[in-house]
Design goal:
single chain, 3 helices, alpha+beta, globular, 253 residues, two-stranded antiparallel ribbon
């Protein structure tokens, strides 16, 4: 199958001016090749004793046609980076999720996990929150809080950061990997108020201001939905073209 791009949502769309939706410089909206080159630089920059590896995963598009047959194609939909920190005592995983080439093979979701294996290397949660508040020029909502961890969310809607009232929570969650069903698209950002979300989970370490585990989820729901709609339509058009334009040689009579 020959992919052709039919949609190109600009990098930075949906964020306030001067604010970048990125993790480690990998930006929402980056193409597969651009993001892959950034991951390769992260791998090359690891300190002595650390081990890092990258793995690619593919997603299948499949559509049933008359007679019960299926037409299928695949595209690279995920990059996974694993870092064994060795003597740093900090291990990490990053998962990057991409749309199909017809929408530019764009990055729409980033998932990052960090494990701090010794008390001495656990960062202060207050310092992390201060850095994120400065970077995103926003105040987080508290999403979930219990005795062992807190999950917060920075929420952006129509290009502006939403500011929580005191002690308020949000139902907005970060966009993750799309499931393999088109019907799911109608449920994405159903309220319309959760365009781009950065979710931050911090599990308590040696104190309630230290983290033994951190999870970031950064997702652009509107980009994911628009890209997926374009990708499904492109594949439908491709299958329709096969049906109308394909004709083999019939048998001799």
């Amino acid at each position: 199958m020959q992919w052709k791009q039919t949609l190109d949502i600009p990098v930075g769309k949906g964020m306030p001016e001067g604010v970048s939706a990125d993790i480690l410089g990998i930006r929402i909206g980056d193409s597969y090749e651009v993001a892959k080159s950034k991951v390769e630089k992260i791998i090359a920059g690891q300190p002595d004793g650390a081990k890092a590896s990258m793995q690619e995963f593919f997603r299948a598009f499949q559509m049933q046609v008359h007679g019960g047959e299926f037409v299928e194609t695949k595209y690279p939909s995920q990059l996974q980076l694993k870092i064994d920190g060795g003597t740093t005592e900090v291990d990490e995983e990053i998962h990057l999720h991409f749309s199909a080439p017809s929408s530019g093979a764009q990055l729409y979701s980033i998932e990052r996990h960090i494990w701090y294996n010794k008390h001495e290397v656990q960062p202060r949660i207050s310092d992390l929150l201060a850095s994120l508040t400065q970077k995103y020029k926003a105040t987080p909502f508290v999403y979930v809080a219990d005795g062992s961890s807190v999950t917060r969310a920075f929420v952006f809607d129509d290009g502006r950061a939403l500011t929580p009232a005191p002690n308020t929570k949000t139902d907005c969650t970060a966009m993750g990997a799309l499931p393999d069903t088109e019907d799911y698209l109608r449920t994405i950002n159903y309220s319309g108020n959760c365009d781009i979300v950065l979710s931050l989970q911090t599990d308590y370490g040696i104190s309630d201001d230290h983290a033994e585990y951190i999870r970031f989820d950064l997702g652009d729901a509107e980009r994911a939905k628009a890209n997926a709609k374009a990708d499904y339509q492109y594949f439908r058009d491709y299958v329709s073209g096969l049906a109308s334009g394909t004709a083999g040689t019939g048998p001799k009579l």
